[in-house]
TrEMBL record:
Pfam families: BURP. Coiled coil: none annotated. SMART domains: BURP. Residues 153-362 form the BURP domain. It comes from Adiantum capillus-veneris (Maidenhair fern). InterPro entries: BURP, BURP_dom. The lineage of its organism: Eukaryota, Viridiplantae, Streptophyta, Embryophyta, Tracheophyta. This is BURP domain-containing protein.
Length: 364
């Protein structure tokens, strides 16, 4: 009997140990698929989510998201409040340094590798020159803008095997910004110019700051409509995936360009991935207090995959978009000046910056 009691006590101790261990394990963070990853695989099951996009998923847990959503609906949540902006991966006004720097020196006087701010909207949007540029600080001359853009734009027939081309610096630092959870993004005021004040107050953006100028430019871009493209501005990863599934289809194939330093490179191969008539959508980040992507789809573009031999001998595969119909572009678009061509007379191609994403219509 004594032996049985000892065994019973030992079993109880072991059982208590396992219960305690299980309780402690329950408190530890569990590695699981993010909401963005799960939504991606539901909407785009035939292709893997790029690592570059997965890293942009909201870091907020489901519990914290519900907590902040309750506060947001009650009107008590401000992005600048302690803990929220840093934990959510958005702009923190109380500790922010300017995301962009006004141009105070000519382009030739900048340190190596430093590029002046490109006026929003960026070069790859067709309305360039339509919207008034509200750049904060001294404006850049047209000559400087052309010089800056000369390695970004090119004619498709200029890419021949063996040719040495000048590549731009395609690095694109997102400053640690992350997508908002989809539920929070939907609960915020819509991305239009009429809601600029409400959005600025939520994000804690100071009047007259660089971020306010960036917000105004971005909201103007988001409001611009064109009959030649399907476009949306999105602050959640799930919103981006929904747009792509609608614009390109559930069999979409994705390309995510990396960062390449400004340098000369030799073209070793050029492949047309998706030709005119197919649906091609691209998503580019815009300047905003939280991560915001502008996605647009046309059927008049081609995606090409260019293999280049870099200065260090490595081979890089660089996707580029070629716009086959530029007749509806604004005549003041910088690309026309760079290539010395007129709207609608020729195709215009451009390299894609890091942290942009291109989706093409799948054939499987």
């Amino acid at each position: 009997m004594a032996g049985l009691r000892k065994l019973s006590i030992l079993q109880c101790l072991l059982a208590a140990h396992f219960v305690l261990a299980a309780a402690l394990l329950a408190l530890l963070p569990v590695a699981k698929a993010s909401s963005l990853s799960s939504f991606w695989h539901h909407e785009l099951p035939l292709t893997s989510i790029p690592d570059a996009l997965q890293k942009l998923a909201s870091p907020l847990s489901a519990r914290l998201t519900r907590h902040y959503l309750t506060q947001l609906k009650a009107g008590t949540l401000k992005a600048s409040q302690s803990g929220f902006c840093s934990s959510a991966g958005i702009y923190c006004s109380q500790k922010a340094t300017p995301i962009s720097t006004p141009i105070t020196t000519p382009i030739t006087g900048l340190p190596p590798g430093v590029q002046p701010r490109v006026c929003v909207p960026p070069f790859f949007f067709y309305e360039y020159g339509v919207l008034r540029c509200r750049q904060h600080g001294a404006s850049r001359s047209t000559a400087s803008a052309v010089q800056l853009s000369s390695s970004i734009f090119f004619a498709q027939d200029s890419l021949t095997v063996g040719k040495v081309v000048q590549l731009p610096d395609t690095s694109n630092d997102l400053k640690g910004l992350r997508f908002l959870p989809h539920s929070l993004a939907k609960a915020l005021p819509k991305l239009n110019e009429g809601n600029k004040q409400a959005l600025a107050e939520f994000y804690g953006v100071a009047k007259g700051s660089d971020m306010e100028f960036d917000m105004v430019d971005t909201l103007a871009h988001c409001a611009y409509k064109s009959e030649h493209e399907l476009k949306a501005c999105l602050t959640s990863g799930e919103g981006m995936v929904s747009f792509i599934a609608k614009a390109v289809g559930h069999k979409a194939v994705v390309y995510a360009p990396g960062a390449v330093a400004m340098q000369e490179a030799q073209v070793i191969d050029v492949k047309v991935v998706s030709s005119k008539g197919s649906r091609v959508a691209s998503c580019h980040d815009m300047k905003f207090p939280s991560l915001l992507y502008s996605c647009h789809m046309t059927k008049t573009s081609e995606l090409i995959d260019v293999s280049v031999k870099l200065a260090d001998g490595h081979v890089a595969h660089m996707p580029a978009i070629c716009h086959m119909d530029t007749s509806y572009w604004n005549p003041s678009h910088i690309a026309f000046q760079v290539l010395n061509v007129e709207p609608g007379k020729t195709s215009i191609c451009h390299w894609l910056p890091q942290n942009s994403f291109v989706f093409v219509q799948g054939t499987n």
